[in-house]
Amino acid sequence: MGRERLYLYDTTLRDGQQTAGVQFAVSEKIAIARALDAIGIDYIEGGWPGANPTDSEFFAERPETRATFTAFGMTKRSGRSAANDEVLAAVMNAATPAVCLVGKTHDYHVTTALGLALDENISNIRASVEHMVASGREALFDAEHFFDGYKANPAYALECLRAALEAGARWIVLCDTNGGTLPQEIGVIVTAVIAAGIPGDRLGIHCHDDTGQAVAGSLAAVLAGVRQVQGTLNGLGERCGNANLTSLIPTLLLKEPFRSQLETGITDAALAGLTKLSRKLDDILNRVPLRSAPYVGASAFTHKAGLHASAILKDPTTYEHVDPALVGNARLIPMSNQAGQSNLRARLASMGIEVDPKDARLGAILDEIKEREDRGYAYDGAQASFELLARRELGLLPEFFSVERYRVTVERRRDARGRMGHLSEAVVVVNIGGERRLSVSEGIVADGSDGGPVNALSKALAKDLGPYQCHIEDMKLVDFKVRITHGGTEAVTRVIIDSEDSKGLRWSTVGVSPNIVDASFEALLDAITWKLARDGAQPA
């Protein structure tokens, strides 16, 4: 028997936009929609036309997609027909092939929040869905607060679903709107809904993460028979977020019984782009990616303990539930003051360096790591700096350039309008193959404000590296973390910098100094040097 089709519905651009602090620009929504379409999502919900200027403009400019583009709205209001409801008309006028309308299915919300009679709410659901179908749209009914409504009054909640189904809705989406229903409850209720005559291949699931179980609840619904799953990239959404598609998708494609029983529109090749897609969204939002995120996080396949690293060398399946390459991620054996030779050899092997287990330089590298971590360095979160350290000890790192001196100034002054502000400026002098180069840069950022002394240093350092410029011109600093270590009069500052290039490659470097600017500069130097070494740049 063939696998059943499971449809994936993304609501990042609508429900995800309800995340506190998130507000997509039209251009960003277009970029996200194209990325979702490229990975193989079946439905892309673009937002609520008419609810705000951004969504209205987006629907006017939305890209053509293979995925079914969907507009979101609400069922018609009482006292008017579906054809004469201007709120519903704005949704229909978006001219999307599918429309998803939210309606109440919890009797308490109908009588209290809407102030309607129960049968009037059902009439509104029926008329709204009929209007969509008559207009040639694929109709989805978003059954708001369904699980709470079912527990309070199952007969009424089911009657709402039947009204939408009989009116022609393609999908009835069961919503755990408050996010409080546990996975076992979801499975039991979905089973009861199907037994009551609502076919599983007409049912969807929409879970919120208020108990941290939205992914588990969605999987329970799939096991019970629903055939559409809704969620958002990186778990964006109101309050605690929605079911996270970056966790759901690989689970559905790689784990049993889903892998052998269900088919999605996502190919294995597309799955390998999942980590890049997750980080692309964080980049758009200017957020630091969650290192501990399942499947796609930087720490998802990181093995720090020596015992783990030793086993990984023999067989990765000892501590990895899937091959990280399947989701576009990578295995990482971090180095720290807990490291042993197993970790070190594994890390060197991942760098393409094979060293005899008896090579005395292995011990020297470990001693250097432990001595430097005593001074405040941390290499488990700065793998690029570790790689540079190891390559220097092994004689495998060319000297690309040296820094003769640098200077940073911060001037506090009033602007032409008399407002107090500050301006950072950096001067860097480097020596490349015997030639001295001087670069000067201000710390001004895109909005015209001062990005600070570290930004000025970064810009000056990368402004003119002569023959190496082509290797670093697409580099950018994406995260900057500062920690004071040791405390008291002996306190030092540790800076960890995350850098990224245009291919989505991300690396971390560390610097330590009593001076925060000097620590930052050390991390910046490592970031550039690592990029040159990784690209195979030839020393001048």
UniProtKB/TrEMBL annotation:
Keyword Cytoplasm: no
Domain Pyruvate carboxyltransferase residue range list: 6-272
InterPro entries: 2-isopropylmalate_synth_dimer, AIPM/Hcit_synth_CS, Aldolase_TIM, Citramal_synthase, LeuA/HCS_post-cat, LeuA_allosteric_dom_sf, PYR_CT
EC number from the UniProt entry: 2.3.3.21
Gene3D superfamilies: 1.10.238.260, 3.30.160.270, Aldolase class I (3.20.20.70)
Highest taxon above the source species: Bacteria
Main EC class the enzyme belongs to: transferase
GO BP, sorted A to Z: isoleucine biosynthetic process; L-leucine biosynthetic process
GO molecular function, one term: 2-isopropylmalate synthase activity
Pfam families linked: HCS_D2, HMGL-like, LeuA_dimer
CDD domains in the record: DRE_TIM_LeuA3 (cd07941)
Pathway terms, separated by semicolons: Amino-acid biosynthesis; L-isoleucine biosynthesis; 2-oxobutanoate from pyruvate: step 1/3
Keyword vocabulary terms for this entry: Amino-acid biosynthesis, Branched-chain amino acid biosynthesis, Isoleucine biosynthesis, Transferase
Catalytic activity: pyruvate + acetyl-CoA + H2O = (3R)-citramalate + CoA + H(+)
NCBIfam families, alphabetized: citramal_synth (TIGR00977)
Family: Belongs to the alpha-IPM synthase/homocitrate synthase family.
PANTHER family reported in the protein's UniProt record: (R)-CITRAMALATE SYNTHASE, ALPHA-IPM SYNTHASE/HOMOCITRATE SYNTHASE
Protein name as it appears in the record: Citramalate synthase
